[in-house]
Design goal:
With 280 residues, the chain is α/β, with parallel strands linked by helices. It is built from ten helices and ten strands. The protein has two domains: 119 residues, Rossmann fold (3-Layer(aba) Sandwich); 134 residues, Rossmann fold (3-Layer(aba) Sandwich), CATH 3.40.50.2000. The strands form two sheets. Strands 2-1-3-4-5 form a five-stranded parallel beta sheet, covered by helices on one side. The chain has a five-stranded parallel beta sheet with strand order 7-6-8-9-10, with helices on both faces. The chain starts with a strand and ends with a helix.
Length: 280
């Protein structure tokens, strides 16, 4: 299988290896596929491909697979080979914007936008995100590694209720993110809108207990409150569950272990690559 992944290269050197195109490339290669990456910021990128490139380059592949881009996407209507696009940020942009580029199939990370057999949830790369032995004795009680966005009221409440145990690592990326998440006993998360964000899978992939906002898509993903994570529907529930998890080591460790086993088995880029290969 010969696959071309299209995605703009990452803007931050520290996070470059964590960009979806490189993670999915490793996932496809795990299954024996040969993979190239093309797009803005990559070597030999042509922002205005001519007809010859469409006829000879793109059509050389068995699959052209595009992943969410920030502000650029080529017209694929001229490409005869099979071509899919993975819409990760439809919860921000809306689902219809991805239909204008001429792809055969639009896959959505958010289940609410996905038509039949077109749901491809977010995941994590277990080759670069994993439990760190140096973090076996976790140094922080409850932490949040990410950006504020609309989460400020929740963050402020966690700071107020856990003044000595809460740590906020804002815009910590790449390997530093993996170290941060590994250092928490509990990693807090709040999904935005209908999105089930990467933090869910990355947290469990680090063998850290996940405390996250409830979401209707968790059931089909196998994510279960009190089994492999803790979920909350309001701030009081969030604080109470955080406190209980911090005070009960065995309970917290059992949930963290179950979460790790879940995502390691079902929610890696290797799993997503296998799903895509089965589609074609």
């Amino acid at each position: 299988m010969n696959i071309l992944i299209i995605q703009e290269n990452g803007h931050h050197d520290l996070n470059r290896n964590f960009r979806e195109c490189f993670c999915l490339k490793r996932g496809f290669e795990h299954h024996g596929a040969e993979v190239e990456i093309w797009g803005k910021g990559h070597d030999d990128f042509d922002p205005n491909p001519d007809q010859r490139m469409y006829d000879q380059y793109f059509s050389h592949f068995d699959l052209v697979f595009a992943i969410e881009n920030w502000d650029w996407m080529p017209d694929m209507s001229k490409v005869d080979t099979k071509k899919f696009i993975w819409a990760i940020d439809a919860h921000c942009k809306g689902p219809r914007v991805y239909e204008q580029y001429g792809f055969d199939k639009v896959l959505h990370a958010s289940s609410v936008f996905a038509e039949k057999d077109c749901w491809l949830p977010n995941c994590y790369d277990d080759t670069i995100i994993y439990p760190l032995e140096t973090m076996y004795y976790k140094s922080h009680g409850i932490g949040f590694c990410g950006n504020v966005a609309n989460r400020k009221p929740y963050i402020d409440m966690l700071k107020a209720n856990f003044p000595r145990k809460f740590r906020f690592d804002e815009f910590v990326i790449g390997p530093n993110m993996v170290e941060a998440v590994n250092s928490y006993l509990v990693h807090w998360n709040a999904n935005i809108g209908v999105d089930v964000n990467y933090r869910n899978f990355e947290t469990m992939g680090c063998h850290t207990m996940l405390l996250t906002s409830a979401h209707p898509a968790y059931g089909p993903l196998g994510i279960k409150d009190g089994v492999n994570c803790l979920t909350y529907s309001n701030t009081m529930e969030m604080v109470n569950k955080a406190r209980y998890a911090l005070d009960n080591d065995n309970y917290r460790d059992d949930i963290a272990r179950a979460g790790y086993n879940l995502v390691k088995k079902h929610h890696t880029y290797k799993n997503r690559a296998q799903t895509i290969l089965e589609m074609i």
